Amino acid sequence: MTDHQSLTPTLTTVLDDACCKANEYQRAGLLEAAETVYRAVLQAEPRHPVANYQLGLLVLELQSGEMALPYLLQALEARPETASYWLAYLKALISAGQLDIAREVLVLGQGHGLEGEAVDCLAEGLNLPPDKPVPKSLPAKPGTRKKSRPSATDEEKLISLFDLGRYSEGVILARAMTERFPQHGFGWKLLGALLRSQGDNAAALAPMQKSTRLAP
């Protein structure tokens, strides 16, 4: 599977320059021309983060949040250190009415260092406390024992996404579950199955092996 980092310098430069040109079209209001260029870049390199991000923003603006999700998720998976990619994906989830998933993604993003005024506004809108730091694994509530496994509702939600073929959304939730409950095999098992269903057998191997160790 092609990786943007592994492309030849010449091809990388050509694709990056094309994205810059498409962005000029976008700023000038030539949205159809911009979309055509972004799609051409993605045809050459489906994982190109900038093309996925910018096309996702276009689709979010012109069509729907749900249709923008695959592009924005691909950009986020390629560059998880980029705050704007997290924010765009969260906005698309909210636009699509997928608020439960948006809450999970926001917590996951905060655990990876996502912060700022825009994040606080999203947290407030999603009924999450903006002033409460959230680490990579969620802490137990004061005075209570930390849960060792996800709730039945969380497990059913993840299974439902898998059954509906909504693999990209499922991967996000499964990753969040493995971070919250790293010693529980269910999340690792579903993460592996979801990645395999996306055709990424190499990435699926490690979580499947871990689920086997935790729940032989």
Summary keywords:
single chain; mainly alpha; 216 residues
Descriptive overview:
This protein has helices spanning 9-27, 31-44, 49-62, 65-78, 83-95, 99-111, 117-125, 152-163, 167-180, 185-197, 201-214. With 216 residues, it is an all-alpha fold. Helix 3 packs antiparallel against helix 4 (65-78) and helix 4 (65-78) runs antiparallel to helix 5.
Proportion of residues in β-strands: under 5%
Strand count, sense and closure of the main sheet? none
On the 0-100 scale, what is the average pLDDT? 80
Tell me, briefly, the overall form: globular
Task: Give the C-alpha Rg.
Answer: 18 Å
Low-confidence stretches: 130-146
What is the SS-derived class?
mainly alpha
N→C terminal distance: 30 Å
What's the order of the H and E elements? HHHHHHHHHHH
Compose a concise summary of this entry:
The protein is mainly alpha-helical. The longest helix is centred in the N-terminal third of the chain and has 19 residues. The radius of gyration is 18 Å and the shape is globular.
Write the layout of secondary structure elements.
Layout: H1 9-27, H2 31-44, H3 49-62, H4 65-78, H5 83-95, H6 99-111, H7 117-125, H8 152-163, H9 167-180, H10 185-197, H11 201-214
